[in-house]
Specification:
Layout (H helix, E strand, L loop, with lengths): L9 E4 L23 H7 L13 E5 L3 H6 L4 E3 L2 E3 L1 H7 L4 E6 L18 H13 L3 E6 L22 H21 L6 E4 L24 H18 L12 E6 L5 H13 L6 E5 L8 H14 L3 E7 L17 H7 L5 H16 L6 E7 L37 H4 L13 E4 L2 E6 L9 E6 L4 E8 L4 H6 L1 E9 L5 E9 L19 E4 L4 E4 L11 E5 L4 E9 L5 E11 L5 E7 L6 E4 L4 E6 L2 E7 L4 E9 L4 E11 L2
Parallel strand pairs: 2-5, 2-11, 5-6, 6-7, 7-8, 8-9, 9-10, 10-11, 13-17
Antiparallel strand pairs: 1-13, 3-4, 12-14, 14-15, 15-16, 16-17, 18-21, 19-20, 20-28, 21-27, 22-25, 22-26, 22-28, 23-24, 23-27
């Protein structure tokens, strides 16, 4: 988190355990373990789930698998090479999920990568799974490539169609896919009509939120497209008249802990009489809120809409290490947010706790979970995009060498019929906590700290602190405060950094969740505030810019009551690059304007443009960012700082 923000004292959890306490059942970090797979299997303990139904979905999205295999990827269990699906099934997986893209090639006909999930590849994988007795969830993206809350790109063959022609195209395409699978003996057991459709699909016709003056179809357009996809599945399902046997329809959103989002979307779809059977949720604990948030949402929406619920996507890391040098989505930061250690045991516990949350949904409406891409080991030629690497291998259920991890066996171990016994997790250590403050402020000590448990979960626990030394606080620098976890003898440590450098920027990290104190001139519709944890430097929010067309804007804040002196201005940024200009500036400070250009060079490649030696006189200065961008440019801005250095 940031320091300071809105004159508040903010807490940051550090990434190292305060005590090195051996953890029960943990055999070491994934790539470095010297134990054999069988030893790992023996040492892992997972608590069973009481009253887990026999048909509980223990699914795996394996949409990358064919491309991985085509690129030379191999899979092993206890040292024996086996078919990946065989390994998954033997470890308890009973469903697979496959995404399908309309035409995943570029203008020259080259495959885009990320699984190359065209119809032929999807049918081949579906047939293979069905022959093994696995059930199938088919995930229509209705796009030529990745579709998610941030992008729902119209398939190129449908661009320019009017609403009625687009609806017809959706129906005919969906019907063709279902007919093809049916003829191949691989009729889906569930079908997702759209993928993570928080803001609709097939933009702009099916888009539900408006940017600037763009024309969108809104919820009417979105619902009309959904109805065509649903109807095509119903019309081509030979079991459609049998409510027990017919293919179930899923409508899937991301942000599984966001109850307001689910009310907004499903209330609108209910008003428009959209036919569906199951609400699908993506839930990644490091992005989508606490497990309690998810539980509350699952219980609420299943009752509110009288629908079954399923976790359509989830995953967690088994290690913080990286195999291929391509930046992974899950890093130390996600571990701090996710609630579990990035270990084999932590991965298993995260899966087990999620399955229990779903199993406890009232009236048996919690169907199960799908683990997203447990197969995605890092091999050349099987990246998220052709020519690029794998950002997911540390969240796979296989080691970097393709060996099944013991965490995969969680699907078997949670079953009541397993030989597992329930062993309550015990406290094993606390994480040091950091508090940043400015000289002269009164510290507000945190009521809780994060603690590690023997199952490698990370939980908040209440703590009582000794009183900080007033003389040490008045002196500044580093001050250590000791505490005790309530009801235990376990110690906690708070490291306070007392700085004499005050950040004069208001809402410096956009932690108000809005643009308070900031002004945007120009294409303001390109600017918003993001809560995507993976894109934020620290805290909860960051400024984000993007627009489908070329755009330009100036972000500014005029700061007053500044003591005369020398200051330094800085900010944190990352983005895709390609802008004509990205410029941090300071003007009207009593001297000549100053500016520095910066260049974004990639996702999570953080840049810190800095203007040093700004002479401020007269008590005022305007600071900000100027951007001139081409269509589709994007970036994130966070932690803007103006501090007096002399």
């Amino acid at each position: 988190m940031r320091s300071p923000k809105r004159a508040l004292l903010l807490v940051k959890i550090l990434a190292l355990l305060m005590f090195s306490v051996p953890l029960v059942g943990y055999a070491g970090n994934l790539p470095n373990s010297s134990l054999t797979p069988m030893q790992l299997q023996r040492d892992l303990h997972v608590n069973p789930i009481h009253n887990l139904s026999s048909d509980f979905i223990m699914g795996a999205d394996v949409s990358m698998l064919k491309q991985i295999e085509d690129s030379g990827g191999k899979f092993y269990d206890n040292g024996e090479e086996k078919d990946c699906l065989t390994i998954l099934k033997e470890h308890g997986v009973n469903w697979i999920r496959l995404r399908i893209w309309n035409d995943p090639v570029d203008a020259s006909g080259t495959s885009l990568g990320g699984g190359n999930n065209n119809l032929a590849n999807t049918v081949a994988m579906a047939v293979r799974a069905k022959k093994m007795g696995l059930k199938l969830l088919l995930d229509f993206h209705y796009s030529d490539w990745w579709a998610d809350p941030g992008k729902q790109t119209m398939p190129k063959a449908w661009v320019g169609l009017n609403e009625k022609d687009l609806e017809k195209a959706v129906y005919e395409y969906t019907a063709h896919v279902i007919q093809t699978l049916l003829k191949a003996g691989a009729m889906p057991d569930m079908v997702q009509v759209g993928n993570e459709v928080n803001g609709g699909m097939m933009w702009p016709v099916g888009k539900t939120w408006k940017e600037g003056t763009e024309e969108i179809g809104g919820y009417d357009g979105f619902a009309a497209l959904l109805k065509m996809g649903v109807q095509a599945v119903r019309d081509n399902d030979p079991n459609n008249n049998d409510l027990q046997k017919r293919t179930k329809i899923v409508i899937h959103l991301a942000n599984g802990g966001d109850n307001k989002l689910y009310h907004t979307v499903f209330d609108a779809l209910t008003e428009r009489h959209v036919d569906y059977d199951v609400i699908g949720l993506s839930y990644y604990s490091y992005w989508h809120g606490s497990l309690d948030d998810l539980k509350s949402n699952l219980n609420d929406i299943s009752e509110r809409y009288h629908k079954d619920v399923v976790i359509a996507e989830t995953a967690y890391a088994a290690t913080l290490n990286d195999k291929d040098g391509f930046t992974n989505l899950f890093s130390e930061r996600e571990q701090n947010l996710g609630g579990y250690k990035a270990t084999v045991l932590g991965q298993a516990t995260a899966m087990r706790d999620l399955m229990e949350a779903v199993a406890q949904v009232p009236n048996g409406r919690g169907l199960g979970i799908f683990y997203w891409e447990p197969d995605w080991i890092a091999v050349d030629g099987a990246g998220w995009k052709s020519g690029e690497g794998d950002a997911w291998e540390n969240q796979a259920l296989f080691s970097f060498k393709g060996e099944a991890l013991p965490s995969m066996n969680v699907f078997n171990l949670v079953k009541p019929a397993s030989s597992s016994v329930y062993v309550p997790a015990t406290l094993s250590g606390t994480y040091p906590t950091k508090l940043d403050m400015t000289l002269g402020e009164t510290p507000t000590l945190p009521a809780e700290v994060q603690a590690a448990y023997s199952d490698d979960s990370i939980r908040n626990v209440p703590v009582s602190w000794e009183s900080p030394d007033p003389a040490a606080l008045a002196k500044g620098g580093e001050v250590t405060v000791k505490g005790t976890v309530n009801g235990t003898d376990l110690k906690a440590v708070l490291n306070i950094t007392v700085s004499d450098q005050k950040n004069y920027v208001v809402n410096a990290g956009f932690e108000n969740g809005n643009l308070d104190a900031w002004t945007v001139e120009g294409d303001s519709d390109a600017v918003d505030i993001s809560k995507e944890a993976s894109n934020i430097h620290a805290g909860t929010y960051a400024l984000h810019y993007w627009k489908a067309d070329a755009f330009a804007f100036t972000l500014s804040q005029t700061i007053t009551d500044l003591p005369d002196g020398t200051y330094s201005l800085s900010a944190w940024m990352h983005g895709g690059g390609g802008e004509k200009m990205v410029q941090l500036y300071a003007s009207d400070c009593g001297a000549e304007p100053l500016m520095v250009d910066t260049t974004n060079t990639g996702w999570l490649v953080w840049k810190t443009p800095t203007i040093a030696n700004i002479t401020i006189s007269g008590g005022k200065c305007t600071i900000g960012l100027k951007v001139t961008a081409t269509a589709g440019n994007w970036a994130f801005l966070d932690d803007v700082s103006l501090v007096k250095v002399d």
